[in-house]
Design a protein that fits this description.
- This protein is α+β, with helices and mostly antiparallel strands and 389 residues long.
- Helices cover 44% and strands 13% of the residues.
- It has twelve helices and eight strands.
- The strands form two sheets. The chain has a four-stranded antiparallel beta sheet with strand order 1-2-4-3, covered by helices on one side. A four-stranded antiparallel beta sheet has the order 5-6-8-7, covered by helices on one side.
- 39% of the residues are buried.
- The structure holds flavin mononucleotide.
């Protein structure tokens, strides 16, 4: 009898411990699954397919983290997507802004595949348009519909959406191999752009020298440097409130280095920002990153139409999620391909080096490598992207 009650007591304790362990696993699972939504909306919070799609789409990269995606929701399954020409100095034709829209579409499509929706895109449903500086385009660049489809397969990249990001830290370790480049292309599945891979220190050197010179030009040119200042966020409070832009931790600087760098920028004071001292410090940081590259990848299109911009953006977004799956990191260096007069001479030199023909356009240039994880950038709220036209 006594033995029996001891056994019962033991059983009770074991049951209690088992419950505690289950609870701990449950809390851990909730916390880790919510951690990925830190700084960005959780798609499961929305019922309507268009709102879910926006929550996925805004995880996308965009130039200077402008997130300039404007959505007119036609119904719970359809939307019109517009862009605003927000970086007229560094991106005069709004090419990169349209690439950012392509990134947004691709992230929506990857995300919605997991919700059982096919994403159908009609580009330029009312024709192409001229875009005015700092204005939302008069016409949409795409009409996007989400169609329920029970046979749709979850995209192979879905599980890595929340792991993607830009990593501007110096890269360490081994060079990226041709096998890794082929794996990236395999995961991307299909690409509109032709992708070129450059590896090896001596092969990369002339490219890296050009990337460094191009950054010098962009930083020394008052109007382009000023555009960056306007998109710069100078402390965590500003990052958290505005939920866009770029900043010191996004440049790959953490800890005390971040603290001193933010202090020296004096909350974005214009004289300080454009000073020789800040130029020197910026170039030192840039060159540390440039010359630590473990490979270069370029995305080229045969023509340079608005549609090429969007489709190259979709390629870049797929590439960006694919490398997250492979544990590889990336950082774009697009200054030399930007279309403002101060860059013309260096761009000619670059086109010669890359044997780019006059109708072709290199749409995106990135360095690749391996590095510790970097600061995660903020995203605005789903509601901030909705407009009615
Ligand atoms: C079309 C395009 C061009 C970009 N060009 C550059 C660039 O030249 N240099 C750079 O450091 N980042 C560049 N970026 C990366 C963005 O700054 C980055 O995506 C944005 O800040 C959001 O951060 P995340 O990628 O970590 O989410 C580019 C992104 C896109 C989509």
């Amino acid at each position: 009898m006594k033995n029996h009650s001891i056994l019962n007591e033991k059983q009770k304790i074991m049951n209690h411990n088992f419950k505690l362990i289950l609870m701990a696993i449950f809390v851990f699972a909730i916390n880790t699954s919510n951690a990925q939504y830190e700084k960005r909306p959780n798609p499961t919070a929305y019922k309507s397919p268009v709102l879910k799609a926006i929550a996925y789409g805004i995880t996308a990269p965009s130039p200077h983290n402008t997130q300039c995606w404007f959505i007119d929701t036609l119904s719970s399954n359809e939307m019109l997507l517009y862009v605003k020409h927000v970086l007229p100095e560094t991106d005069p034709p709004a090419r990169q802004i349209h690439m950012g829209a392509g990134c947004f579409i691709e992230l929506m499509a990857i995300g919605m595949s997991n919700e059982g929706y096919e994403t159908k895109v009609e580009y330029f449903p009312f024709g192409e348009y001229e875009i005015q500086k700092n204005k939302i385009a008069e016409k949409p660049l795409a009409k996007i519909s989400f169609i329920k489809n029970s046979s749709i397969q979850k995209d192979v990249l879905y599980d890595f959406i929340y792991q993607r990001g830009t990593n501007r830290k110096p890269y360490t370790g081994k060079m990226i191999t041709i096998e890794e480049f082929n794996q990236i292309k395999l995961l991307m599945d299909k690409a509109h752009s032709e992708m070129t891979f450059i590896t090896g220190e001596s092969e990369m050197k002339p490219y890296l020298d050009i990337f460094s010179k191009a950054m010098e030009i962009e930083t020394k040119t008052k109007m382009t440097n000023e555009e960056t200042r306007k998109m710069f966020r100078f402390n965590e409070e500003e990052r958290q409130t505005k939920k866009d832009g770029i900043s010191i931790p996004q440049m790959g600087t953490d800890g005390m280095g971040k603290m001193f760098a933010e202090m020296s920028l004096k909350k974005g004071d214009s004289l300080t920002w454009h000073s020789g001292k800040i130029f020197k410090a910026t170039m030192k940081g840039i060159n540390k990153g440039v010359y630590s590259s473990k490979g270069i990848i370029m995305f080229k299109t045969n023509t340079n139409t608005m549609l090429d911009w969007i489709l190259a953006g979709r390629d870049y977004a797929r590439y960006n999620v694919a490398i997250a799956k492979l544990g590889i990191v990336t950082h774009p260096y697009n200054q030399v391909i930007q279309e403002y007069s101060q860059m013309e001479e260096l761009q000619k030199e670059f086109n010669k080096l890359t044997k780019t023909k006059s109708k072709e356009k290199i749409q995106m240039i990135v360095r690749v490598g391996r590095a510790k994880s970097s600061y995660k950038s903020w995203r605005k709220n789903v509601e901030d992207f909705i407009i009615s036209k």
